[in-house]
Amino acid sequence: MSTWFTRRRPSVELPRLTPRARSLPTVRVDLHEVMPDLLPYLGQAAYLQLEQFETLSRVAAEAGDLHDKGLISAAAGHALSKHQGIVAEIRRRGDDPADAMKPFADEIEGFSALIVGADWRETLLSALVTGGLLDDFFIRLAAGLPGDVGPRLAHLLGSESGQEGVLEVLRGQIAADPLLGSRLAMWGRRLVGDTLLVARSALHLSGNRATDDARIEPIFTELIAAHTRRMDALGLTA
Fold this sequence. Notes:
Blueprint: H1 38-62, H2 66-92, H3 97-101, H4 105-114, H5 120-142, H6 149-157, H7 163-176, H8 180-201, H9 209-233
InterPro entries: Ferritin-like, Ferritin_actino
Organism: Leifsonia soli
Protein name: Ferritin-like domain-containing protein
């Protein structure tokens, strides 16, 4: 795996989206060509959900309003449930979950350190943006997994995430602080490049950047479109 956190805020050229007013046919990529093996997929996905749980738990502890704490804690609980579901898949294979996650621990913890914001509201947006992008990504990758494990994981990762509760908290904070919206919009844009590096690191690529980018651009374009909708829901520009 590449060490995507060793350089501070690396420059990443993101796929260009077509204008929202135009509807173009969706190009599908053969996921079997870029899929990681099953156990690395499970190990990385499991550890990412565990980090999401820990991030949201810390944010819940810092939030002052009890209603906000409850909504953020509920989102943390959903991340933990997803983690436990992926761990169950690892055990079903007869593998040890800790061993499966260990190769990804340093990189994911480094990534988590990068996305800590200046305050709990920025870190909450980090959880929303990175969690949403990576859930979407691993759901799409699940279509390339063997047997019936893919549909099970896609269903698990696409289940309730508490996203609406997180959106409610952030909308309330933005409404109460006129300057917060522009700061969060800028922070959200900084998060996307680092998160897509995490996604890219999970793929089996040829090393030919131009060829690889052409093959995976449809996946990343869909991810960015979904991210834009989440930012729209907050009234922020992506």
